[in-house]
Amino acid sequence: MLNKLFRRNTERPNLMLAERISLVKNEMIPTHIAIIMDGNGRWAKKRALPRVAGHHEGMKTVRKITRLANDLGVKALTVYAFSTENWKRPKMEVDFLMRLPEEFLGTYLPELIEQNVRVEMMGEIDSIPPHTHAAVNKAMLATKDNTGLVLNFALNYGSRSEITKATQSLAEQVKQGKLLPSEITEEMLSQHLMTCSLPEPDLLIRTSGEVRLSNFMLWQLAYTEFWFTDTLWPDFDESCLLDAVESYQKRNRRYGGLKGE
Ligand code: IPE
Ligand code: IPE
Ligand code: MG
Q1: Residue 259's pLDDT is what?
Q2: What is the pLDDT of residue 248?
């Protein structure tokens, strides 16, 4: 079982990247990939660097993976950048993490625009610092008409809080007499989530060897294919993304039925 869950970069080691990309493009590409980018702190620790050096390095991985995902024809890439639980970390680390979107977008916004990428954000926007909010807003505005990949940052995001808020909003409609409790559907709940404009993820990737969801997209991942790797996020590269997509392409998605048997 674990062997199936953890695939290392040993699949098809002799194929060049370009050749692998073109082979992958011949098969079904996941429409939406969600990534729990984990292991930045351990990457830094291994090098006797401060944890924040790992977060900084992880930014470069976001750039690489965004480029390749866009090139493969992936429509949406959601990256978990900061959870509602990450406020528990030391203030210095939190402050650094809240500066990263500015740095990332300050450096890479021109190339995201050039690549036709649209920047989006989901999370509790009211409690992020104004400077972080401003940087993300600027990028969202500058890319709003782009038609390529949607790069969706999950920033100050927590799935339980998201579901709770959706429930409160539906309860409010019931209270106002606009809706009966029995009329509430799964579709309505989905439409009240922060992902209402996106399809559900086809593929979830988590790096660094942790095998848990850490409060990420609990509702949306109901039928998503999971792929875990020991690779730490700053070491994750194009070849790792291809490993994940190749694994996805071999899956038999049944949704409870018998499709593909
Ligand atoms: C992921 O790396 C980035 C965030 C959670 C913000 P970590 O900071 O969790 O790195 P590890 O898990 O401590 O190695
Ligand atoms: C999940 O990673 C959150 C992000 C990647 C932003 P964590 O490192 O915070 O998760 P736990 O604490 O190991 O569950
Ligand atoms: Mg972690």
Answers
A1: 74
A2: 98
How far is residue 227's CA from residue 204's CA, in Å, rounded to a whole number? 6
Q: Compute, in angstroms, the gap from residue 147 CA to the centroid of ligand 2.
A: 30
Listed as ranges, residues in the chain with pLDDT below 50 are: 1-4, 6-7
User: Helix (H, G, I), strand (E, B), or coil: what is residue 227?
Assistant: strand
The pLDDT score that the predictor gives to residue 1 is: 45
d(CA 38, ligand 3 centre) in Å: 5
What is the Å distance from ligand 2's center to 14 Cα?
33
The catalytic site residues sit at 38, 86
Amino acid at 62: V
What is the model's pLDDT at position 261?
56
Q: For ligand 1, what atom is nearest to the CA of residue 38? A: 1
Q: Is the pTM of this model over 0.85?
A: yes
Q: Is 152 helix (H, G, I), strand (E, B) or coil?
A: strand
d(CA 208, CA 235) in angstroms, rounded, equals 10
233 CB near ligand 2 (under 6 Å): no
Q: If DSSP codes are grouped into helix, strand and coil, which group holds residue 64?
A: helix
Identify the bridge partners of residue 34 per DSSP, sorted by sequence position. Answer: 78, 204
Q: Which CATH architecture has domain 24-159+199-249?
A: 3-Layer(aba) Sandwich (3.40)
